[in-house]
């Protein structure tokens, strides 16, 4: 909660409250305001250099506008909502917000009443912070920093690792198109890390020629942080940055198990979603990254080698990740003319795992995209394959354009308020 004390200037002429503020990570922030004064402060904060990585949109309309907007749209990483109501009405509004918030969204409520009892009730309901107007842009940046940059706060980024069940399965193509869909549809920053160091294709697929690559980050070792990493990232599209593979054979790329830890920690601080495009090899560092990822996607072809290898991968990941969900299975290149294939239903029966996506073979579409350095949705946004990638991106993040049956970001709310369940 903020105070109304005036800012005390420092000897340098800037407010003392500006000291110690850290850059905000690459997150999506939206705000719904009732007063122009609060909207102006949030706009000022959005223009500050510390907010350069964040994607900020400020709307008018308060809670009512937020409820209407998010009925058919995913919520951002961080949501500011202003209300002028008193305690009972505010709690009712928070209950309503809980029904439209995606899991993982953090909510900061902006009010006009310095009410300690209300603050405690909001914290119990899972609201991240209650700010009392008036406040300034430094208060806004500080609150965001306390939510995302505090020492005891886990990194914001969710890691999704893509690996092929066999060479040539198209795992990289799936990873790149899912990363692109995430960046376009969910209004948040995405970092794509091409970890196939000698042969990675992400820079080709996105028509990039980055001057610096993942090799530079590896050479920096423990000195890598989010500021250093940001200099290495190549911008592929709005909200999508690439950490490219060097793709050269002038050296060997033998790394120990912990080689990528500092890089990925920095990436997770920088962006809400980190896509790991892993090579089809089995090394200590690949095994570690698969075991540590929030989600694992296995891309298989409809053949016997893919079936065997996918089963081996799934069995190993069950051991390494006993408390996590099973990997996601994508069956790619289905329907290749004159090739005998194992049906998706037989994959499901053998692996006891339903495929999250079955991607048909389309040589012309994928070939054109590859040769042009474009993603499938850039070639034909209405194609069924483009829709498959968008749906897969939604499932991997727990988001959907259809708002029914979703879990709330205000974690204790629905479970603890039976009257909401009855609505």
How would you characterize this protein structure?
With 423 residues, the protein is α/β, with parallel strands linked by helices. It is 39% helix and 17% strand. It has helices at 36-47, 62-69, 87-98, 116-124, 137-148, 171-185, 202-205, 214-220, 226-232, 261-270, 284-292, 304-320, 344-351, 363-372, 376-379, 384-397, 413-416, 418-421, and strands at 28-33, 55-60, 78-82, 106-111, 129-132, 158-164, 190-194, 234-237, 240-243, 273-277, 295-300, 328-334, 355-360. The strands form 2 sheets. It has an 8-stranded mixed sheet, sandwiched between helices. Strands 2-1-3-4-5 form a 5-stranded parallel sheet, sandwiched between helices. The protein is globular and about 70 Å long. The protein starts with 27 loop residues before the first strand and ends with a helix.
Topology:
Layout: E1 28-33, H1 36-47, E2 55-60, H2 62-69, E3 78-82, H3 87-98, E4 106-111, H4 116-124, E5 129-132, H5 137-148, E6 158-164, H6 171-185, E7 190-194, H7 202-205, H8 214-220, H9 226-232, E8 234-237, E9 240-243, H10 261-270, E10 273-277, H11 284-292, E11 295-300, H12 304-320, E12 328-334, H13 344-351, E13 355-360, H14 363-372, H15 376-379, H16 384-397, H17 413-416, H18 418-421
Parallel strand pairs: 1-2, 1-3, 3-4, 4-5, 6-10, 6-11, 7-9, 7-10, 11-12, 12-13
Antiparallel strand pairs: 8-9
